[in-house]
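In this supplementary section we document a worked example of the pipeline. Step one takes a protein sequence of length 97 as its only input; no multiple sequence alignment statistics are reported here. Step two produces a three-dimensional model, which step three serialises into structure tokens for compact storage. The input and output of this example are shown verbatim.
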Amino acid sequence: MIEEPEDFEQKIYKKITDGDELSNDELREVISCFHVYEEIINSHRWFEDIRSIVLLNDKYYAIDWRRGLTKKQSISYKNQPYEVVKTVKVVVDWEPV
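The serialised model returned by step three reads:
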């Protein structure tokens, strides 16, 4: 039987709030299903460090992971999801005329 998305979301949210670790398969699935934002933190020759923001139960969580850029490098997860909040920052930049 295939798990409903709402059931999966509740199961994952409970694991996070209970302090239980998510498996690599669960982390991959969470990023795939609940991803709202992604940024490249660092780019290297063989891999990129990525931060994915996911939305679970009206809370945002970050998951840091590494994406291999060749067939020989695999995906690896650096940590468990941690709660984050969105902040707005004003940036001043100078551009040529």
